[in-house]
Write a structure and sequence with these properties.
Strand content: 5-15%
Distance between the termini: 42 Å
CATH class of the largest domain: Mainly Alpha
Helix content: 40-55%
Radius of gyration: 20 Å
Low-confidence stretches: none
Bound molecules: fe (ii) ion
Mean pLDDT: 96
Strand order of the largest sheet: 1-8-5-4-2-3
CATH topology of the largest domain: Dehydroquinate synthase-like, alpha domain
Largest sheet: 6 strands, parallel
Number of domains: 2
Oligomer: single chain
Number of strands: 8
Shape: globular
């Protein structure tokens, strides 16, 4: 089987690496940064600390959990006004996704709306991404999830332009993440690894990243949830999420993520909880179509079968208080949810593209 694997992002990993931001930016020849960090990091001083390391006082934090294209226009204007030559994006997926999008808007001068609904030129300011959660993998993927609140549209945009120049992964930045967010981000990362493994575009390199990512994530998620100050658990989670990102960056995700969008938009589930909602279900369903590979994957993780691995995911969801029934999320129209999930483009990347009827039947078991 022929395949290719490439990954353009330079990775710096280690506790305390955030202190080297200025040095890293200088090594690329950059001089003036716009820092994009969410409001929580602006309030607790982390954004200011990183801005200081980056040698700037320009920090943009006027955006929410689902970054809107209007915020991208505002940030791009600031980047142009201060003649920023790079973006430092600090935060969870929202801040990094916004940072990558702003980088293209600022460099090309195109409006965020033009980019959101049109073609994305392969041209942007360089981005240095610092994840503060162990989950999205956005620091090593070419994906930016943005929203147009005016029209009620949220979508993942994929482009080579959305690869950061560098990812600076400092597990110490995750020490203050609350337990529930630690769990949802952790299950998002587990979903990235599992989906990279079972999706149609998987290859031996992404498989290897996925296996190692799962080993770290399954081994550390309880410890990181139980004691957020456990730096060893946080380091494993950060490394696991990074490797899961490297696994799915070229393969993209599949059924679990296809369903996560309708679940987040329709019922307000955070991204990780929305992925966790169907992860064990699709692990059981997909293993019927590729029992050999998924049993082999489960065995690399110390489980006897794919079903046993799904049981472990259910255990984590229950322990951490995630919703796992349609009733709990307030969904009464199974057929409509199933239709939205079936038509999502990522469903076509699943080992089997389930029909709306098949999904409705499967979701019927989640009552
Ligand atoms: Fe995800």
């Amino acid at each position: 089987m022929g395949f290719s694997y490439s990954q353009p992002v330079k990775i710096f990993f280690g506790a305390g690496e955030r202190g080297r931001i200025g040095e890293i930016a200088a090594s690329f020849g950059h001089k003036r940064a716009l820092v994009i960090a969410d409001g929580f990091l602006a309030a607790n001083g982390v954004a200011g600390e990183i801005a200081k390391c980056a040698g700037t006082d320009a920090v943009f934090s006027a955006f929410g959990a689902d970054p809107d294209i209007s915020a991208a226009d505002d940030a791009a204007k600031i980047a142009r006004d201060i003649a920023a030559d790079h973006i430092v994006a600090v935060g969870g997926g929202s801040a990094i996704d916004l940072g990558k999008f702003v980088a293209v808007a600022a460099k090309t001068g195109k409006s965020a709306e033009e980019l959101f609904y049109g073609d994305i030129p392969e041209d942007g300011l360089p981005v240095i991404a610092l994840p503060t959660t162990a989950g999205t993998g956005s620091e090593v993927t070419g994906v930016s999830v943005m929203s147009d609140g005016k029209r009620g549209v949220k979508k993942p945009l994929s482009s080579p332009a959305f690869f950061a120049e560098a990812a600076v992964v400092d597990p110490k930045l995750t020490l203050t993440v609350p337990p529930f967010v630690t769990a949802t981000c952790g299950l998002d990362a587990i979903a990235h690894a599992v989906e990279a493994y079972w999706c149609r575009r998987h290859n031996p390199v992404s498989d290897a990243f996925a296996e190692k990512a799962l080993k770290l994530l399954f081994g550390a998620i309880d410890r990181a949830y139980d004691d957020g100050s456990d730096i060893s658990a946080r380091t494993d989670m950060s490394m696991g999420a990074l490797l899961a990102g490297l696994a799915f960056a070229p393969t993209r995700t599949a059924a679990v993520h296809a369903c996560s969008y309708p679940l987040s938009e329709g019922f307000g589930l955070p991204h990780g909880e929305a992925c966790a909602f169907t992860l064990d279900l699709f692990l059981r369903m997909n293993s019927r179509f590729d029992a050999e590979r998924l049993t082999a994957l489960a065995k690399t993780q110390g489980f006897a079968s794919a079903d046993a691995m799904a049981d472990e995911i259910v255990r984590i969801k229950k322990k951490t208080g995630m919703r796992s029934t349609l009733k709990a999320i307030g969904c009464a129209d199974i057929a409509s949810l199933a239709r939205e999930c079936a038509v999502h483009p990522l469903m076509q990347n699943n080992i089997r593209a389930y029909s709306a009827e098949e999904l409705a039947e499967a979701f019927g078991g989640l009552d």
